[in-house]
Amino acid sequence: STRKESSAASDVYKRQGHYHTKNFGDKLLRDILIDFFHASGFNDVKSVGYDEWRRLSRFGKVLFILLQPIKSDVLVLGGGGYLNSNKNSFGWFKLFRYLLPILVAKIFRRKVLICGVGVGPDLYGFGRQIVRLICKLSDYLSVRDTESVELLLRIGVKSKIHVFSDLAMSKYEDQRSTNTPLKIAFHLILRNGEASELEEMVSTILSKYKDSAKFYFLSDNGLLGDEKAQYSHLIAKYNIEIFEDKDTYDVLGFIQTMDVIVTTKLHVSILGAFNNKLMFSVARNGKTMRFFKQIEKSGNCIPLASLTTIILENWLDEISKYIEEPKNYYNKPVLT
Description:
Elements: H1 7-16, H2 24-39, H3 50-55, H4 58-71, E1 74-78, H5 96-107, E2 111-117, H6 126-137, E3 140-143, H7 146-154, E4 162-163, E5 182-187, H8 195-208, E6 213-218, H9 226-230, H10 232-237, E7 241-243, H11 248-256, E8 260-263, H12 266-274, E9 278-283, H13 286-294, E10 301-303, H14 309-324
Helix pairs in contact: 4-5, 5-6
């Protein structure tokens, strides 16, 4: 849960580098998957991080894709919204990045596990045939939400499909703190035209709990630029503390000390729910809404345009309920 307490995981990061540039959520979720395989008896888990992959030449990338499945016993495609193709005439082409190593693995009789992937929302043309083949070749197939299942069934996938909301939720831990006062954090990335609506939402929550809570702003990858200027008067008025993160474990450690977190980012929502924190999300995409639907908390994830006064009042009521009974706020899926 912290750098000091998770030295083994930190060593994994030093070896792997970034999975996606500055995306702490992806890095942590991959560690969770690696931990699961270690616990299941797979001690030699090879994984290439973003920095290492970026340094490879085009030929080096092709060679890695061809050779790594041959050198392994099991090939795992884990996490992320991989299986999609847009309406572009070559939108399906990127799916070959995943099909090619799977084909190599099956030719050499290796097991292929697809764990917790997202599917869609777009699957057009030849992309549907590729996804059907990927699923057919897999020895194990699990997806992150029921919408993914429905789409796979609609395009004719016959494989058995497992469902759980996210890899992180499979290792759900009740990290509810006994804070006095209540700790509420905001992690809000501004976009054009949203400033006034987001400020109104923040002000409503601040004014409600000004006498009973401590407030924080969580920066994004150590940066808090436009957001700091936008909320400067609120920061001063409510004595809001700004948390400047340095790495993934800083963020996770911060989340574990909070009670309530309001965010615009999917991975903050996942990590908060993973630690049994009360999460509210201003949805920026369908993937976030699908995640909250899958964990049966759709009311906690609302697009900004739909964030009415009534919904804000419901969020405030939800905070009161969570304070009274924080245990088992989320249903824990089982990773099998």
